[in-house]
Design a protein that fits this description.
It contains three helices and 19 strands. The protein is mainly β. The protein is elongated, with a radius of gyration of 29 Å.
Amino acid sequence: MFICGSNFVGGGLACTPTPAGMENINYVEIKNGIYDDLYITKSTEIEPGINGPAEWDFDTVLWAKFNGNTIAGNIDWSLETTSHIVLKSRSEGSFQWKTIAVKEVVSTDDFVINYPDYFTASGETVEYAIVPVLYGAEGTYARTRTTCRFDKTFLIEGDTVWGTELTDGFCDTTRNIPSSTVELLNRKYPVFVRNTLANYDTGSCRGSFVPFADEEGCELAYDARCDYQRTKYQREFMDFICDGIPKILKLPDGRLWLVQITPNPADAANEQYNDRDVSWSWVEVGDVNSEEDLYYLGFSAVEPEWWSHG
């Protein structure tokens, strides 16, 4: 059968060499018959015949072979031309991509990729791209974008996420630029001296942190009507922040850091004995937008060969 313009075989203009309709075709229906193939292409050089096309090409829109299903995608064709699937991200308006995940493709099941991106700040619009790669040669970028928003403070290590309500904690910061002023003998004003490129944040946080209730949402593992339930997590959280491993600190106002917890966290009561907070200090140790920092600090498993070098 042929589909020409928007007509079905048997229509008055069905076999007209030039399509009779100029509107886009966005719906196809076949019924009351037995069909071997349904093939739609953007190419105008296709030759009608009883034999179907030899293989998928870049003009193919869909090809349903009806082999016990109605799948019309090019998953088999992609398997032959894809060695890896790469997931990239970048902030909206930014030019440089950041590779956040790489997956080797061996079977069609490997085209399913599920990656939790903890490196996105609250309120930030991020563009994602899934890229098929054949031994270093990138294919077409499939893109989407999303905006993440949350109202809690989170501390993350690997797949472990702890958080606290914004109203139950705080996080104060200091910008560190090591320098000094030198007062000279014959000069009224001192001379500013800075002999390092160091420019980083330190801070102190406090709150009643509890773990995620599940991996799908942002709900914490306690009943907000029973605040005392949070105290049972205090010692576990203390062990978490004292394990010596760098972490991601995210605030609901859009600030985000890669941090190392510094000595010595404290567990102290507020007005009531069971109303307790853990307070702790931290130092910024890397740039969340640097693939190198993420790799060498243990936040990313993406090898240097996959980095999106500027």
